[in-house]
Amino acid sequence: MPKQFEIIREFEVQATPEQVWEAITTGTAGWLWPLEYEPREGGAAPFGGTVTAWDPPHRLTGRVESPEGVENQTFNQLDHVIEPREGGRAWVRYVHSGIFVDDWDNQYDGADKHTDFYLHTLRQYLEFFPGRTAAYAAAEGPAASTAPDAFEVLGRALGLADDASAGTKVRVGLPGPDAVDAVIDYRNANFIGLRTGDALYRFFGRNAFGAPIGIVVHRFGTGADSDSDSTKATERAWQKWIDGLFV
Question: What pTM was estimated for this model as a whole?
Answer without folding.
Answer: 0.94
